[in-house]
Amino acid sequence: MNIKSDLGQLLRGVMTEAKELAAAERCSLFLLDKHTGELVSKVFDGNEASKEIRIESGKGIAGYVAQTGKLLNIRNAYQHPLFYKGVDESTGFKTRNILCFPICDEEGVIGVAQLCNKLNGFHFDKCDEEVATAFSVYCGISIMHALVHKQVQKAEARYKLSQELLLYHMKVPDTEVNHALEAVKEPDREQDELYRTFPRFDFCPRDVKDHALSVQLAMRMFYDLNFVGSFKIHEYKLARFVLLVQKGYRDTPYHNWWHAFSVAHFAYSLMMNLRLIERGIITKMQGFSFLIAAFCHDLDHRGISNSYQTQTSSPLARLYSSEGSVNERHHLSQAICILNDSSSKILDGLSTTEFKECIDYLRELILATDLANHFRILPRLKKLRAEYLTEGSNQRLLLSLMITCCDLNDQIKSWKTVQHVAHLVYAEFFAEGDLEKQMGLRPNAMMDRKKACIPMLQIEFLTTVIRPTFEILVQIFPETGSFLDTIDSNREQWERVRNRAAQQGNGSEAGGNGASEPCNGCNATAECCDFTCYTQVND
């Protein structure tokens, strides 16, 4: 059963009834987001809103009604100071009059309904106001019951999900924990060079390869940043935490432990090399939360996108789709599960206030790894300046920027790493595209192995996502300027791959090697060959 659709169907029915009772031309319904205080569009012009619209508390007609709880009957919309005519100008619709009223439950306002343009009169009258007031009570009861039903369904979905996870994940044996602790206390002298270069930006975590060594290095990050002493972390619990996080990642091509290890290493390198905590740019608690979030940000990723989860009404979508960022909310949930386990509770040494603060930062940081959220705050990120980082919400914006840079850090590594990671990413993309085709859906071009051209897609990705994001980081921290040089160098490599393939007649510039069998060099199908077989000379 699709929870989101069930609620949407109810709301559409409720507003259709309201529109008919009041003889209105259009109707809209907004529900109050109790976490942000914003009004969120649920029904627009009688249909379930296809694109989420958010209205700040107190802003506009709907915001005013939500804040005051009072009905507004506006006879001439264009003469009212709260009316915003920009929507009319963009849609061509002419709003004449408005009847806007609150929807309440026993605790207060839970939403706002808005009716536009009286059909059989000049404006809405007192009778319409009485109908709206009575209808508001009915609407509030209906929505309240629907939301309770939704919570029950969510609980069922959580139960099924937890059962699935219990079957999938293995427990961490004490021998593994003890081995990790011994290795950290008595490091292998043969690894001296690795330990020496480990904090550097140009260190490549993907070159480590040995799982046991990666666990030791992960633990070392907490020691090097003095989090173990500052937050009274029990060493045994730290080892078990890292091992549980490692086992919490599935064996997907890209979103696996090695991606998490790489992301966490870049977070560690940022804090070490830029001395973010020592310079007061971020607090120690923010740094601690930042590192935990980097390790946990993709926990239990199944190798499929938010879009696919929503389209298929997966258990995760049924649980989180109404809140957005389906995958990221699941990763956060898994992180909190591990942090709440008595054997891996590395937040044990925190006070109640500190614990809540840490979880709050974790939530913000993990949700920030959804690129949709990154693009939403991008205009604000571009305004960040080094001299104002500790003012207002700038610290939180900086953390969001840095976790995104961490998530994308493979693109500032060597060409060999960049090329290897592209294979991993597109292996996941193409597998998802295949699943969509099996369901009769049309996959996005980048996920269609018969249409995608990896060099072209990578050039676009580096140009439109990677460089603009790292440009902001470099603007704040000029000492990271070499990142942009590496990005430009890797983009030039992809351009060479694309051009060389075109020159050698192995398909068009847009992709395809002209053959009917998979390419022996890169094992890609003919239609999606990424020309890796022509790049070996550059390794």
TrEMBL record:
EC number: 3.1.4.-
Enzyme class: hydrolase
Gene3D superfamilies given in the database record: 3'5'-cyclic nucleotide phosphodiesterase, catalytic domain, 3.30.450.40
Annotated Zn(2+) 1 binding sites: H259, H297, D298, D407
Catalytic residues, chain numbering: H255 (proton donor)
Single Gene Ontology MF annotation: 3',5'-cyclic-nucleotide phosphodiesterase activity
Cofactor(s) recorded in Swiss-Prot or TrEMBL: a divalent metal cation
Note describing how the cofactor binds: Binds 2 divalent metal cations per subunit. Site 1 may preferentially bind zinc ions, while site 2 has a preference for magnesium and/or manganese ions.
Binding site for Zn(2+) 2: D298
Pfam families membership: GAF (PF01590), PDEase_I (PF00233)
Residues reported to bind AMP: H255, N256, W257, W258, H259, D298, D407, Q458
PROSITE patterns recorded: PDEASE_I_1 (PS00126), PDEASE_I_2 (PS51845)
Superkingdom field: Eukaryota
Keywords of this entry: cGMP, Hydrolase, Metal-binding
BP terms from Gene Ontology: signal transduction
Domain PDEase: 173-501
Cited InterPro entries: GAF, GAF-like_dom_sf, HD/PDEase_dom, PDEase, PDEase_catalytic_dom, PDEase_catalytic_dom_sf, PDEase_CS
Family: Belongs to the cyclic nucleotide phosphodiesterase family.
Protein name: Phosphodiesterase
